[in-house]
Protein 1
Amino acid sequence: MTPGAGDHSDDLPASERLRQDAHAERRAPICRWCGVTALPGAAVGLAVDFACDNPDCPAVGERVR
Ligand SMILES: [Zn+2]
């Protein structure tokens, strides 16, 4: 730990961060209409990779990529 590096958000070991990065390899896109992270299409019953699931979004249920 570097003196003065008081960043508590950086307390994960590097190996753990790498593993999380691997899990996030297939990163969910952000809906360009509402800015909400899209859900996998399977999670919302759609045959798409990712879809917006924000009920307030004009593009809800549409494919996001
Ligand atoms: Zn949206």
Note: Residues 9 and 41 are 31 Å apart (CA to CA).
Protein 2
Amino acid sequence: MSNEQSGQGKGSGPDLFKKGEEIQAMRENMAGIRNVMIILSGKGGVGKSTMSVNLATALALEGYKVGLLDIDFHGPTVPTMLGLVGQSALQGENEKIRPVVTEWGLKVISLGFFLRNQDDAVIWRGPMKTGVIKQLLREVDWGELDYLLIDCPPGTGDEPLSIIQMVEGEKAAVVVTAPQEVSLAAVRKSVSFCRSMDLPILGIVENMSGYLCPYCEKISDPVKKNSTEELAKKENIPFLGKIPILMDIISSGDKGQPIALQQEHRAGTIFLEMARELAGRMPGWEGVPADKGKA
Ligand SMILES: Nc1ncnc2c1ncn2[C@@H]1O[C@H](COP(=O)(O)OP(=O)(O)OP(=O)(O)O)[C@@H](O)[C@H]1O
Ligand SMILES: [Mg+2]
């Protein structure tokens, strides 16, 4: 008997029942995750994925149990930035999807792991994307995590919306921007988006802020504006700092070895300090990694 014949899927009763079951399944599956950080920006190309892989790496090196979920359907770059191109997320013994794990213990799920070919274009409408996000929240076997970072595509579309609506518990946003006026306009949108969704903002980062010369170690800054800082102040949001344009950030991302792995490197230090600050800022977080917290 089809759903329509049986009356299932029609009217609010069975649909609501199904929704309740789905929510319960997601809740149970994510019960081991203590904090969720959603990395977003109103604008493309400002460094969300760079931020996500480096913050996640820095937190993992700090001894936290960390996961990274890349929900960029149209341009998943996380596999490249973590040297995981060609890897697939397989089904584990419990029939759940097993994340790919980096050498430094970061658990990763990217939509890129499910594409047959890296160059395949994904042509999906909103409801299909929402369906996949739901499935990932229900079926990825994250186990115990101190932090799950979620790398969003640019804008305030279906993906961040679904994530914010569907993930329960302690969650907050990190907003990434660049110093140009156009990026600032986009960041205002991100802030109002988070506010309208009741999502706390842990802070705003200004990426690609000035150019750090690898030879003289000086920063030249043709834009020279403190607009992001001013905006953060005006909106009463913590300003997390500036990250300069640095060739090593590009090459490390292209090589799949995040710069955060080099903790003595200037950029590595910046990401480490930012990660430490963010870690302590999660609402409701007592600041002790899951394993160290146990008696
Ligand atoms: N501080 C930086 N210095 C130099 N290059 C950077 C810096 N931050 C990011 N990049 C480079 O800029 C490019 C875009 O960065 P990234 O992919 O992280 O942006 P994104 O916001 O995730 O983009 P999208 O909106 O397409 O998802 C990458 O090649 C990355 O290496
Ligand atoms: Mg990205």
Note: Residues 17-278 form a domain with the Rossmann fold fold (CATH 3.40.50.300).
